[in-house]
Amino acid sequence: ANLYDATGRGAVKVNVGGVDHDPVAIVANGDGTYQVQIVISGQVNPGNQVPLTVNVGTRISQPITLVVRAN
After folding, report:
1. End-to-end Cα, the chain, rounded Å
2. Distance CA 4, CA 31 (A)
3. With contact defined as beta carbons under 8 Å apart, do 13 and 21 qualify?
4. C-alpha distances in angstroms, 1 versus 4, 5, 12, 26, 64?
5. What proportions of the chain, in percent to the nearest 5, are helix, strand and coil?
6. Are the C-beta atoms of residues 46 and 40 closer than 8 Å to each other?
7. Which residues lie across from 1 on neighbouring strands?
8. Each residue of 49-71: pLDDT tens digit?
9. Which stretches does DSSP call E strand in 7-70?
10. Contact in structure between 52 and 40 (CB atoms under 8 Å)
11. Which spans in the chain are helix H?
């Protein structure tokens, strides 16, 4: 899968709580799946059901929720 756009920038974005994040790493698992690693921005509001989606180009995943706690 091509995870980069024509400019060489990453085509993968992760949205957490309405804030876009660039992956710090994308690792192929060898079974056709990928692990996408991000550092959650301090702009994301803490909560028990914060939505997360992964965008690849124009495709957007179904949302999942995660717990985000303040530091």
Report:
1. 36
2. 20
3. yes
4. 9, 11, 11, 12, 22
5. 0, 50, 50
6. no
7. none
8. 999 999 988 889 999 999 999 87
9. 12-16, 19-21, 25-28, 34-37, 47-56, 59-60, 64-68
10. no
11. none
Q: How far apart are CA 11 and CA 3, in angstroms?
A: 5
pLDDT digits (tens, 9 = 90+) for 6-59: 444 578 999 999 999 999 988 888 898 889 999 999 999 999 999 999 998 888
Burial of 12 (0-12, 13-18, 19+ CB in 10 A): buried
pTM to 2 decimals? 0.82
Of the candidates 18, 22, 64, the residue with the CA atom closest to the CA atom of residue 43: 18
**Residue position matching structure tokens 């921005």:** 41
